[in-house]
What does this fold into?
Amino acid sequence: MSVNPIESANPLRHVAIIMDGNNRWAEQRGRQGITGHRAGVERIRDVLRACREEGVDALTLFAFSSENWRRPPKEVEALMGLFYNYLKKEARKLAEEGVAIRVIGNRARFSKKLLSAIEEAESIASSGEATLIIAADYGGCWDITQSAKSLAEDAIAGRISLDDITEQAIGSRISTSSLPPLDLLIRTGGEYRISNFLLWQAAYAELYFSELLWPEFDGVAMKTAIEDFRRRQRRFGKTGAQLANEAARA
It folds into this structure.
């Protein structure tokens, strides 16, 4: 199938994934849910490698939502353990491969042990050609709220005026403000919602939904999603005719 040159020119710098389907993957195999989560962790390396091969600068993974605390305590404990082990095991490897680690979200409810592991991982893998962002105890509503509160505090203190609270100002204090704008948001597992993930950032992101459960979503599936993205026409409020004219003049 031929690709329209306007569509194929889509730059892809930032991908985010809602990694859904771990529990269902385990249930289909008669196993405990934690088995699915472990299998899901193993998929991260494949997907990250595929993203890097396709020139993606930033990959954000929805590891644990602010609503996930409502899950059974044993599952929450197991997920926190997997998160801790991943950071301890992978931070140095990622740093050696030129990948930085960032963790975004509300850290107030994490244990001291996990907080220490997060800080250590971010220190070890502090810079690189690409960035892996792990969203943990994260919610899009929380992200917008913390940005607005930060601006409100500055306004109350007289450091800024109300007129300074603009769309750009709010965006500058969103947790991913130092990263490229979000281009592609993927959800695995056959569900069609974004579940309070990167709400501000997803305003103009392309959405891609896969029927594959997360432990089944490998590097090939990742590249299929990227190929689909590159066939799309991103208009940002313009018409297709406008984009065609701009491309002809370029």
Q: What stands out?
A: DSSP finds nine helices and six strands in the chain. The domain at 5-141+181-233 is CATH 3.40.1180.10 (Undecaprenyl pyrophosphate synthetase). The chain has one domain: 5-141+181-233.
